Amino acid sequence: MSRAKSKMGISEDESVAAEAVELEWVSRFLTSLEQGNINQLLSLLTEDVLLVSDGGGKVHAFTRPIQMRNQVARILAGAIEGIKPYYQGSLQAVLAPLNGETGILLLSGDKTVAAILLQCRDGKLSEIYIVLNPEKLTRV
């Protein structure tokens, strides 16, 4: 995750003091994504939320971090809606500890298709890191 931290502007020596992401909060986040509820998503994001994705050159991902709340909400809702037909209803989101932080795994059958790391600040989502690189997902 050192590459993710560098993209987020966090040095290797810096301790990240993120708030614990509660199960109820993650449930609201996932429900908002599944329903494509942009207004609910916006209410869960900080003004300066940061979205970083890592496809490792193997799958499509954003080449640059995105740090506009409206864009992040629309991208997340659109991405979930866009991949549903590809997985034909077999896509499942499960809560999992990732690198000592709260995360979400998107699963299709027994295959992990994405790992999502979340960090909160002041009760809202401040950073989202989405791992899509199949080589990294084999280690989750």
Automatic annotation (TrEMBL):
Q: Which residues cross the membrane?
A: none
Q: Which SUPFAM superfamilies match?
A: NTF2-like
The highest taxon in the source lineage is Bacteria
| GO MF terms held by the record | sigma factor activity
Enumerate the InterPro entries for this protein: ECF_Sigma-70_Domain, NTF2-like_dom_sf
Q: What is this protein called?
A: RNA polymerase sigma24 factor
Native species: Brevibacillus panacihumi W25
